[in-house]
Amino acid sequence: MDAADVVGPGVMIDVFAHERGPTREELIDRGRACGAIVTSVADRIDRELLEQLPSLRVIAQAAVGYDNVDVYACRARGVIVTHTPGVLTESTADLALALLLACARRVREGEAMVREGRFGGWSPTMLLGHELDGKTLGLIGYGRIARAVARRADAFGMRVIASTRGDVPFENEPYAVHVTLRELLAESDVISLHVPGSRATRHLIGEPEFARMKRGVVLINTARGTVVDEAAMVRALERGQLGGAGLDVYEEEPRVHPGLVARDDVVLLPHLGSATREARARMASSALRDAMRVLRGDEPVHLVPE
Ligand code: DGY
């Protein structure tokens, strides 16, 4: 995408052209004169920051999640917040499946064995995993990404069950059956999280939920780290309640709990859910288009929900 094509003439764009995101100081310094800022999940947008950005009219978050943005503080300041749902669904679902397969088939351990020169030849009992066919996948949250995961899991022969917030049942879903959270925890061989990060979902999965899971269940998290109580997850792994985990997100990113790093049965990725060329290009143009709509006085397409 060429940003100039989206914004048109008469608009100045300041591109932060670095591999890393801006520091808070850089964001304030460069954002002071801006009417719109395109942000990422790594930028913390809070009241103190907003106070230093007097010209700001819109935060266009280039992500579907926006738990890094204090939406209430933005509203109080009259700053509109938009996000980019729908454009990273397939990429994130692909990554959830990659983590699921990596855990089920012990890909991380096998790769390390070969690379470190520990592969001494084929053995009938080496690194045995589990096949997905016939296993039950439980999806917590059933939005766009969960549905895309369900479609993929169906192709692998999995039975898919899903619980939704408030346990509102859904009907006519070709790939998943609605269950309560309690049923999901008790029945799933693999659990994949697909709820947004928020106060309401913080530690949705903690000690009591781990205790209700089947022994040996695998947990996949491509949603937000705050949804899981990480200390409780480490304890569940240590006592074998959890048979493995595939994680792309962490409670205090970029910090990763040392108890997770220490384990062979945990696959750790650095928040790569939307990290494909296709998704990132769409995220950038979607965010930029909504930023421009607001600056021109038009309604944005993807205002964050109330
Ligand atoms: C999102 O869009 O919320 C992702 O976490 C960013 O990669």
UniProtKB/TrEMBL annotation:
PROSITE patterns: D_2_HYDROXYACID_DH_2 (PS00670), D_2_HYDROXYACID_DH_3 (PS00671). InterPro entries: D-isomer_2-hydroxyacid_DH, D-isomer_2_OHA_DH_cat_dom, D-isomer_DH_CS, D-isomer_DH_NAD-bd, NAD(P)-bd_dom_sf. It comes from the Bacteria. Pfam families: 2-Hacid_dh (PF00389), 2-Hacid_dh_C (PF02826). Residues 19-304 form the D-isomer specific 2-hydroxyacid dehydrogenase catalytic domain. GO terms for molecular function: glyoxylate reductase (NADPH) activity; hydroxypyruvate reductase [NAD(P)H] activity; NAD binding. Residues 97-273 form the D-isomer specific 2-hydroxyacid dehydrogenase NAD-binding domain. One of its GO terms (cellular component) is cytosol. Keywords: NAD, Oxidoreductase. Belongs to the D-isomer specific 2-hydroxyacid dehydrogenase family. This is D-3-phosphoglycerate dehydrogenase.
